[in-house]
Amino acid sequence: MSGIHKTYHTGSVQAHVLRGISVEIKKNEYVAIMGPSGSGKSTLMNIMGFLDVHDAGEYLFDNRPVEGYDEEELAEIRNKRVGFVFQMFYLLPKMSALDNVKLPMLYANIPEKEQEERAKQALISVGLEDRMHHKPNELSGGQQQRVSIARALVNEPKVIFADEPTGNLDTHSGNEVMEIFTRLNREGKTIIMITHEDEIAAYTKRKIIIRDGLITSDEINHSQK
Ligand SMILES: Nc1ncnc2c1ncn2[C@@H]1O[C@H](COP(=O)(O)OP(=O)(O)OP(=O)(O)O)[C@@H](O)[C@H]1O
Ligand SMILES: [Mg+2]
User: Fold this and answer.
1) Which of 116, 131, 133, 224 is the most exposed place for a label (fewest CB within 10 A)?
2) How far does the centroid of ligand 1 lie from the alpha carbon of residue 25, in Å?
């Protein structure tokens, strides 16, 4: 990203939220984005993950300017090349863990049997082999977040974006979630996550701090947990 700007317009009010963000994140990095509430972290992550668009500056994904991707390619990227994990989990309450994890494959043209197998493997990989048929309200917060990680993994994305994934979790569940991210990073995934907690950022290898829409600090974490 180079010189990325974003302004939100709400009625007559304008908020210049990103004011020239320049950053390069390479394959297999493990990055924490920190900064005060309202500084633009989620806005930046949503642009990085193709959930929103910037209005000035240049963004290259896989070395290609995002303006050059057509709608079909963007849909493919959103569905298969990036995975999202959010603070609020966003699981469908009436569906089992297994069915929630199958959702991203709905439009991926994958045979039912393979969908089932891949969803099971994803749930096993986050330690939920014995909770597959539970509904979200029958799971703890940490388990629900692990279901949402399995859902993010099921189409085998290269990049995982996580916006305060431990924000609603107790310390123990938060650490469990971070151990999963650390393992995924060792297995080759690029992980970019927002957090307010230093203990959570300590798991990552690089810490970027944003204030008022600008990067004010970008450092390697030499003592990764
Ligand atoms: N869709 C939107 N429309 C208008 N303003 C928005 C929109 N999304 C965010 N904002 C504003 O942009 C600013 C940055 O929001 P953003 O969500 O990126 O902050 P953040 O750093 O993620 O904060 P937090 O730590 O509280 O999650 C805030 O002032 C917010 O009110
Ligand atoms: Mg946010």
Assistant:
1) 133
2) 22
Q: Specify the pLDDT at position 25.
A: 98
Asked, for residue 11, whether it belongs to a domain, the answer is no
Residue in 192, 208, 201, 195 with CA at minimum distance from that of residue 224: 201
* Residue whose CA is at the smallest distance from ligand 1 atom 4: 8
Ligand 1 cavity residues, CB under 6 Å: 8, 10, 15, 17, 35, 37-43
Could you list the residue range(s) of the whole structural domain that residue 145 is in? 26-53+70-220
- Quote the pTM value: 0.95
- Could you tell me the CATH number of the domain that includes residue 34? 3.40.50.300
Quote the pLDDT of residue 58: 97
pLDDT tens-place string over residues 188-205: 999 999 999 999 999 999
Give the closest residue (by CA) to ligand 1 atom 26: 37
pLDDT given at position 96: 98
Whether 44 is covered by a domain: the verdict is yes
Asked, for residue 15, whether it belongs to a domain, the answer is no
Q: Rounded CA gap, 119 and 105, in Å?
A: 9
Domain assignment present for residue 12? The answer is no
* 111-151 pLDDT tens trace: 999 999 999 999 999 999 999 999 999 999 999 999 999 99
Structural domain tally of the chain?
1
